[in-house]
Specification:
Helix content is 73%, strand content 1%. With 293 residues, the protein is mainly alpha-helical. The chain has a two-stranded antiparallel sheet. α4 crosses α9 (140-188) and α9 packs antiparallel against α11.
């Protein structure tokens, strides 16, 4: 029960830090707006693209095929991950590095056990787990294997969710063609009603194809790629935490830890030198690093 409450509080804390991903919103608006404007420039009307029956065929058929192809739990996880397409948590690797450097300085001065209180107050679940293992005196290999396993599991779960959208993106155009064929069947049954109704009927039949192809290429497949990109970014962040915590357990000098971790912030601008915290001096030769009690 306590674990569930802790997980729920961590999820709420993570959600509160999420911000709107303007790239996703702007991309969708630009894609749909460009297509619609191009259609209207050719004297088309937006109302020509409305087809409730075509929408029902494409969306319903796509959802049904996706449920058949994927386990229900995986589909639900994919639906939950939809927020990763439109929301993102701004993460600055420099801030995370500074936090790890502060932990390293404190561990060298007072011993790694002195970080126990700090570990309990950490909101990030992965960093909290890593620091808790370090404070509890877990072996370096044990910490590495456990955290690498968790990183691998997180990547697999994100990959499975992305495959759900990829599979849906594969079914959507085909189901759109099915909808178009169904529409043509209805048109053929009305050939005796005159050409005035045949033309609009054929145009309406192809709306399902537009819905199927548009849904796949404007949303489903891009959403799968965005989920993969988020997963890679999260994995890189977890690797930074893993290397930082292992370096703290090894007792490396904070300067060396900073040099090692700066490889994870190549894309970020370098912080000002006067903003860097002081690092602990290297202990004299022969002086041992405080060990956990």
């Amino acid at each position: 029960m306590a674990d569930e409450e802790q997980a729920e509080s961590q999820e709420k804390a993570k959600t509160s830090r999420l911000k709107l991903d303007t790239a996703s919103v702007a991309g969708l608006l630009l894609a749909f707006g460009g297509i619609l404007c191009g259609f209207m420039l050719e004297e088309g009307k937006a109302s020509y693209l409305l087809g409730p029956s075509a929408f029902l065929i494409v969306v319903g058929g796509c959802i049904g095929a996706t449920l058949v192809a994927n386990p229900g739990a995986t589909v639900m996880d994919a639906v939950r991950r939809l927020r990763e397409v439109f929301l993102s948590a701004p993460e600055d690797p420099r801030e995370l590095i500074e936090t790890l450097i502060q932990f390293a300085m404190r561990a060298r001065k007072h011993g790694i056990v002195s970080l126990e209180k700090d570990a309990d107050e950490i909101e990030d679940p992965f960093l909290k787990k890593a620091m808790t293992l370090a404070v509890d005196g877990a072996d370096l290999q044990e910490i590495r294997s456990m955290l690498e396993l968790e990183i691998d599991i997180q990547e697999r779960e994100a990959g499975h969710a992305a495959k759900v959208f990829e599979s849906a993106g594969g079914y959507s155009p085909t189901i759109g063609i099915i909808g178009a064929v169904l529409g043509l069947i209805m048109v053929m049954r009305r050939l005796n009603e005159g050409p005035d109704k045949i033309g609009p009927g054929i145009a309406t039949a192809f709306i399902a194809t537009i819905y199927g192809v548009g849904l796949a290429n404007l949303f489903l497949l891009p959403a799968a790629n965005k989920i993969k990109a988020r997963a890679q970014k999260d994995a890189q962040r977890c690797e930074l935490i893993l290397e930082g915590v292992l370096s703290i357990v090894e007792g490396l000098n904070p300067k060396l830890i900073r040099t090692k971790l700066e490889a994870y912030q190549r894309a970020a601008p370098k912080p000002k030198k006067n903003a860097e915290p002081e690092t602990a001096p290297v202990p004299p030769a022969g002086e041992s690093i405080p060990a956990p009690e």
